[in-house]
Specification:
about 200 residues, single chain, about 0% strand, disordered N terminus, mainly alpha
Length: about 200
Amino acid sequence: MNVLLLFSANQASETLKSLNVSIDALPQRCQQLLHTFISMQNELNINQYDPISTSLSQTKLTSECLEQEYEILELKQDNLKLRKKIERNEKILEELRKDLECSRNSLNNQKPNPENIEEHLRQMKQKLISYEEIYEKAKAKITRLQVPESLLLSLNELTTQVDTLKLQEHELKQRADDITLASQCLSTLHKLRRT
C-alpha cells in the first residue's frame, strides 16, 4: 500500500496503461489496495497526493479502529464480571434452596409438624383446661375438708403437671411461630425464584 500511496489515483491508472497492464490483471491484493486508495481519495476529496494528509487520515482510521477494539474489550470485560456475579448469585440461591428443603423436611419429620400443629395445640389446651378444672375442684375441697397428707401430695403432683403442661404449651407456641416464619421464608423464596 505504501508504493500505491506514492501515486494519485490518476497517476496509478496512467502508469498501468503505459505499462499495458489492466487493473483486472493485477493480483487480488493489489486490486484491493488500489480500490482502497481510490475510495480514500474520493472520501477526502484529494485530487493530488499529499503524504501528510494521507498519513493523518490513516492515523485517524487506525485510532478509530483501536478505540472500537478497546470498547469491545471493555464490554467483554464487563460481560465476564457480570457472568461471574450471576454464577455467584446462582450458587447462593442454590444453597438457600437446599437449606430451605432441609428445613422443610426436618419440620415435616417433627411432631408436631406444620400440618398438625394446630390440632396438637388444641388437644394440649383441652388437657390444660381439664387439669385446671381438676385442680380448682381439689383446691375447693381442701379448703372445706380436712385432707390427709397423701392427698395433698397428689394435689401437688397435679399442680406440677399443670405447670409442666403450661410450659409445653408455651414451647409449642414458640415452635408454631418458628414454623410460621419458615413458611413465610419459603413463600418469599418462591417469589424470588419467579422474578
